[in-house]
Backbone:
């Protein structure tokens, strides 16, 4: 059993009740549907939300069938239910994981890092003709802008090396090679993730999750790495395209009602956007967010559904309850 199986089992057992396969797939891949956003926070699985954004549905389906054959889960018309727990799923309880607040930010960062290392290394080796290790044009433009700021700094290579060493020598990194062996520059061409995992004799998914965990920790401690921090992108990029359009209007001072009219969308759709915005920027006071006193009263209880929250505070609308569920207020 590899870490992808353990991740699936962890998500399934966290929800306690049977959940439909399409809902579980949304949680695993980080699809920000209204239900996925709300329920991931209600069941306190937001930190493990969307850890495999590129997981293909056919792989997901095959893994579920394999787990069912082995007696770990049951799949029926009610959904997927856990039958047998695995202690190894505790790997995903680590505070290192910050899934909802990061999602694919580490993936973008690592593409930037691969390019930055290549550019800085080739400059050091006075190599001006080469193919970018990452083909993505947006990533190339990002690093080009970054390098234009630093290209006249004669100590750039040393600064980058020192920050990378500080990070890679930390206890949060189990396998340095899942990062370092990917780097290209000078006459060196980096290995693929599969090649590295085969050499380390670990499964590709075990290697992937260790790679991701180290990047999550790096993002959490980004203030300690000012040069690497410049290669990280803003949380705004996490918002869905439509959610960002609503966020942009809100930041420009438009009210909830004005945004509904301007965007010509259903009120419920704009509500979904604000739940996503609140979950992404928990310090932001969005329209209809309950006051701190109400939030604290709700946080003192444990709820498995919005219906339970509504029974506890019947005067609040379901929209207000959803905002409360994702608010992140600490007791």
Residues:
């Amino acid at each position: 059993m590899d870490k992808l199986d353990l991740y699936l089992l962890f998500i399934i057992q966290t929800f306690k009740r049977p959940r439909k396969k399409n809902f579980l797939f949304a949680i695993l891949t980080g699809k920000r549907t209204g239900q996925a956003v709300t329920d991931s926070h209600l069941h306190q699985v937001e930190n493990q939300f969307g850890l495999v954004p590129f997981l293909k549905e056919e792989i997901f389906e095959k893994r579920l069938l394999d787990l069912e054959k082995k007696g770990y889960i049951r799949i029926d018309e009610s959904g997927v239910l856990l039958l047998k727990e695995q202690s190894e799923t505790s790997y995903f309880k680590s505070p290192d994981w910050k899934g909802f607040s990061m999602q694919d930010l580490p993936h973008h960062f690592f593409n930037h890092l691969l390019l930055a290392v290549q550019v800085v290394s080739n400059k050091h080796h006075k190599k001006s003709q080469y193919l970018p290790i990452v083909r993505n044009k947006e990533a190339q433009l990002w690093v080009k802008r970054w390098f234009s700021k630093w290209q006249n700094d004669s100590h750039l290579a040393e600064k980058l090396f020192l920050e990378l060493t500080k990070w890679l020598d930390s206890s949060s990194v189990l396998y340095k090679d899942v990062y370092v062996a990917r780097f290209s520059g000078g006459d060196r061409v980096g290995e693929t993730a599969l090649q590295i995992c085969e050499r380390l004799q670990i499964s590709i998914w075990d290697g992937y999750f260790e790679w991701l965990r180290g990047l999550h920790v790096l993002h959490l401690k980004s203030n300690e790495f000012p040069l690497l921090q410049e290669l990280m992108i803003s949380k705004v990029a996490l918002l869905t395209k439509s959610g960002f359009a609503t966020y942009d209007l809100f930041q420009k001072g438009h009210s909830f009602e004005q945004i509904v009219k301007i965007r010509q969308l259903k009120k419920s759709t704009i509500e979904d956007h604000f739940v996503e915005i609140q979950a992404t920027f928990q310090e932001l006071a969005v329209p209809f967010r309950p006051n701190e006193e109400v939030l604290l009263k709700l946080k003192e209880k444990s709820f498995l559904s919005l219906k339970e929250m509504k029974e506890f505070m019947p005067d609040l609308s379901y929209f207000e309850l959803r905002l409360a569920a994702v608010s992140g207020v600490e007791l």
